[in-house]
Amino acid sequence: MRAVIAEDSVLLRIGLVKVLEMAGFEVAAETGDAEGLLRAVEEHRPNLALVDVRMPPGFTDEGVRAALMIRQQWPDTAVLLLSQYVEERYAADLLATQTGGIGYLLKQRVADVEEFVDALRRVASGGTALDPQVVAQLLLRRGGGPDPLERLTPREREVLALMAEGRSNAGIAAELVVSESAVAKHINNIFAKLDLPIADGDHRRVLAVLRFLDGGPA
Amino acid sequence: MATPGPLRRAYDWTAAHAPWSAWAWRNTALVVAAVPVAVPAVLALAYTFSNPGHILKTLGFVLLLNPLLTRLQRSRFWSLTGLDIPKIPWARPWYRWGGLIPRLRAESTWRQYGYHLVVSPLAAVGGALVVLGWATGAACAFVYSWVWALPLSVRPTGWTGDYVAFTILGVLLLIAMPWCAALVAALDGRAAAVLLGPNRAKELERRVEDLAESRADILDAADLERRRIERDLHDGAQQRLVSLAMNLGIARATLTDLPPEARAVIDEAHREAKEAIEELSNLVRGLHPAVLEDRGLDAAISGIAARAPFPVELTVDLAERPSPTVEAVAYFVVSETLANVAKHARATRCSVQVRRRAQLLTITVGDNGVGGADPAGGTGLLGLRKRVGSVDGTIRINSPHGGPTVITVELPCGL
Fold first, then answer.
1. Chain A nearest CA to B399, separation (Å)
2. Which of A216, B52, B226, B387 has its CA 20 to 30 A from that of B191?
């Protein structure tokens, strides 16, 4: 699998290259700004772009805008955004069109190398990786009207939050220290309580997460 | 030191007010100096009386001399009696573009004009009379010393009663003259202080304006400094720490064949590096987080609300962003109150509302905790009050024992 990196801090870039190589990626290009990133993606068509949100010249949301363009023009390239802080609007923008192949993590998470490697692989293979902080902030913004989520037990909400972060059943089981079959049971309860149609499991999963995030499509 | 006796005090008082005392001569000098400065106004007045048709020209002439005359009068009072009449502060000299019109419209100019046209000639008359008084007094008091020099034809006859009366009259006049000079000087000084200086209310108003402006500057500077520190920490220490933690994480993940002791050391170092990152980001969040500068209050507040250890119901309604200073205070208010709720209230939920109506930003933080928040006690609420006060905001704390607590902060944001 191939990856490109857009990160303006040289120090972090060096570390990220090491982690990507450790995770089995071949780093095709490194760049320090959004323009360079778009050129690199066009040239190398990587599986994954690892992108810093704040980059020159404006140091605001260059990375997010580049990520949206990449997802639109080169859907085969997954994007994992790294940010100094969480702006849930960025996450909402990113998740508006697709929920796969997208990641949004706080920069400091790269310190947990193993988990970060998991997130890299998950996103590159079409999954999602949302920072717990992103999920918490998105959760704040729902409100008004009867909420189907109110029907969930605290445990089911925990499971749903971890699903939203992009974890697999095994990952959720490890995090909550329960068996995988218990997780599966919780997930089925969630599907039932949220009135989600019986269909392909992954699709229902995405719908549940969307419901969770913004009361999205029923 | 013993208190001086009554005799001694009477002597001192007399010496201080004698015709030869410094006091007498300072006042005399002041009133005498009023005479030459009044010459233009006196001439103008005299000319007006003889040619009433030219009244505008002559009055205009005095008005033209207004700055010069005011300066002369100020230095007369300052150098002779130490009376300091403050200057009227003008943004530009009168001969520059935009300097003349404000002067003509200012009431201070017309007060000064009144002084030069009315008080100054009167003071000059007073001065002249004082000079005359001194001269007459001296002439009479010392009549014996010079009367012999007069030719016999004009010398008053007889050496007796008349001359004694002259002498007594002269001495009385000399004793009285310091008081006359003091009276004229006092009246002149009073009039000058009122008419030549700045208006007291206006002066205070201007001072308040200056202070408000300089306070705003200081707040801005402090905010700028906080942002700079945040930026430095983020670009420097934080990046290095993240990089360090990442390298330790790589070591931990790849060096699997190390002895357990070495692995434990790496684990420990990795954990500490991550804790340092967490501490540093908490510190930065308390200062002035980048998200506040980049994305505004909404994003910054939802960040702290999501981090709270209880559910927070958040409503932010901002049509436009307030000034950076007000934003920083509002952010501080929310972060500080949420921290207080977490620390003291034992609440299970909390609501935060931020609304802007016209020029007022209202922040309401409510919780369902135990209440009893004391506005006077606790450094948290005190710091909050100070920070809110720094932008002329108000804070209301309603926290009965048993709860619930509602804190309402209003920040004016139209400056």
1. 25
2. B52
Residues of B with CB under 8 A from a CB of A: 234-235, 239-240, 242-243, 245-247, 249-250, 252-254, 270, 273-274, 277-278, 281, 289-291, 294-295, 299, 302-303, 305-307, 312-314
Nearest to A60 among B289, B294, B303 (CB): B294
Cβ separation B249–A111 shorter than 8 A:
yes
| C-alpha distances in Å from residue B115, one per residue of B99, B128, B144, B186, B198 | 22, 18, 43, 15, 13
CA distance B43 to A140: 83
- Domain B295-412: CATH superfamily is Histidine kinase-like ATPase, C-terminal domain (3.30.565.10)
**Please, what CATH class does the domain formed by A142-214 belong to?**
mainly alpha
- Give one DSSP letter per residue of B39-91, joined into a string: HHHHHHHHHHHH-GGGHHHHHHHHHHHHHHHHHHHHHHHHHHH---PPPPP-S
Which ipTM was obtained for this model?
0.76
Question: Average per-residue pLDDT in chain B?
Answer: 86
Residues in chain B closer than 8 A to A19 (CB atoms): 246, 249-250
Give the pLDDT confidence of B14-70 residue by residue, as tens digits. 888 888 888 888 999 999 999 999 998 898 888 888 888 888 888 888 888 888 888
Q: Is the pTM of this model over 0.80?
A: no
Instruction: Report the alpha-carbon distance of residue B41 to residue A67 in Å, rounded.
Output: 81
Instruction: Give the pLDDT confidence of B89-143 residue by residue, as tens digits.
Output: 777 777 777 777 878 888 888 888 999 989 999 999 999 999 999 999 998 888 8
